[in-house]
Amino acid sequence: MNHTRDTARPETLLPASGPYEGLDAAEPVGASAPDELPQDHTQAILQATKQVGALLKASGYPFALVGSVAAYAHGVPTRLQHDSDFCLRRQDAESVVQTLVAGGIQVVSPPEDWLMKARAGGEEIDLIFELAHRPVTKDMLDRAEILPVDSVHMPVLAPTDLLESRLTALSEHHCDFGALLPVARALRERVDWDRLRRDHSASPMPDAFLYLLERLDVVPPRETGATAAPARERRTPEEAPHEGP
């Protein structure tokens, strides 16, 4: 999941006590196990997503799939190469972790305070509390759509919220329009573009991307507002045509 903060792979596991009891303290989450993965990495990521998604559903706490796997679930043609991301409320984190650990998922607490890291079947899983510095809210999770991920149905962040999270993350230091363009093209008919324009008109990078979409005819041009005609009626007396002597 792209985020404006740099995220280093954590090497320290949570203490093997309390809700994290039972984790293997000898193996850091950053360790890879390529011999345990299927040759098709996309399928490996989907398998891990399904495993974690099923456990999150069983926890009873609200969550939603986000990131590249969420785009995949919405029908965006993409090859999955990185981790799988789930967003949830910060206040639910401890209970959710207990459910995941009981289901055999390894969970760690990185130095960053906006997410937790997990691993399933050799694949990295991010449990995110903030999307581009914005807290995950109940309203956002309530808008999620239930979609099949391979064979498991789970909440997936709504298209507008998915684009919102990606646009908010754009900055001078992270401005990959090329990766975002296929997502916008695939979801264009299901996104509230007026809302995104309204929310990001004052942010240079997101606004530039939205303008690019207009120039590429991905989305219709934005409304220009009032026409020029009314302005002619607001002329000052000095500007008005002289009438009579």
Description:
The chain has helices at 41-59, 68-73, 93-102, 138-142, 159-168, 177-187, 193-200, 204-215, 229-232; strands at residues 63-66, 84-88, 106-108, 115-120, 123-128, 130-131, 134-135, 145-149, 152-156. The protein is built from nine helices and nine strands. The strands form three sheets. A five-stranded mixed sheet has the order 1-2-5-4-3. The protein has a two-stranded antiparallel ribbon with strand order 6-7. A two-stranded antiparallel ribbon has the order 8-9. A hairpin with a 2-residue loop joins strand 4 (115-120) and strand 5 (123-128). The chain is an alpha+beta fold and 245 residues long. 33% of the residues are buried. The longest helix is centred in the first third of the chain and has 19 residues, at 41-59.
Number of strands: 9
Largest sheet: 5 strands, mixed
Strand order of the largest sheet: 1-2-5-4-3
Radius of gyration equals 23 Å
Distance between the termini: 73 Å
Class from secondary-structure proportions: alpha+beta
Q: Give the helices and strands as they follow along the chain.
A: HEHEHEEEEEHEEHHHHH
Residues in β-strands, percent? 15-25%
- Overall 3D geometry? globular
Mean pLDDT: 80
**Helix fraction bin:** 25-40%
Can you tell me the residue ranges where pLDDT is under 50 for at least 5 consecutive residues? 2-34, 226-237, 239-245
The count of helical stretches stands at 9
